[in-house]
Design goal:
Blueprint: H1 2-29, E1 47-54, E2 60-66, H2 68-76, E3 86-96, H3 98-104, E4 110-112, E5 119-125, E6 136-142, H4 150-153, H5 156-160
Length: 175
């Protein structure tokens, strides 16, 4: 009876160790993680990839920036993007420029509205950490630098899947 109890204890201990290892492995390799939780340092010093204007619910103007890895890949036309690529999107609500429009004699000029930016978004290429989302981690930060809600971030990858053939990146390089 004592041997059966010891055997059951050993089996239970082994099962617990396997379950813990599987859970820890999943957490550390990040395969299930798809969100970036910190603003990359120095992003305002990166090079311009392109600009865009979005209408509809977003109604913003934005600058798309890339770190050195992104810019090299864009210029070379290299896909998929290399590990360590980070693409940033800085978006502002746009407002008419009274000063510019006065000079033009009509309303035709728009500039970034409220400062700081309305929001920041990032895509970070790390194929191991973000394997569940095509190798990209996604982030959005509000104007106070706080990460957006996880529920919003869950919408990123499904939208980007439409452009899988471009390594999930919408923005094309505008030299």
């Amino acid at each position: 009876m004592k041997q059966i109890a010891l055997l059951l204890l050993a089996v239970a201990t082994l099962a617990a160790a396997v379950a813990f290892t599987a859970h820890a492995s999943r957490d550390t390799d990040g395969a299930a993680q798809i969100f970036v939780t910190e603003i990359p340092r120095g992003y305002r010093e990166w090079r311009l990839v392109s600009v865009a204007h979005e209408e509809g619910n977003l109604n913003d103007i934005r600058a798309i920036l890339g770190n050195d890895e992104a810019i090299k890949a864009y210029r070379a036309g290299k896909l998929p993007f290399p590990e360590g690529t980070i693409i940033a999107r800085i978006a502002w609500r746009h407002v008419p420029s009274e000063e510019n429009n006065k000079a033009f004699g009509r309303e035709q000029s728009f500039v970034p509205g409220e400062a700081p930016p309305w929001y920041l978004q990032f895509m970070v290429k790390d194929s191991k950490k973000y394997a569940a989302t095509g190798g990209w981690g996604y982030a959005q930060f509000d104007k106070d630098g706080k990460p957006g809600p996880e529920s919003d971030m869950k919408n990123c990858f499904p939208c980007h899947q439409a452009i899988k053939d471009r390594d999930y990146v919408f923005t094309r390089y505008a030299p």
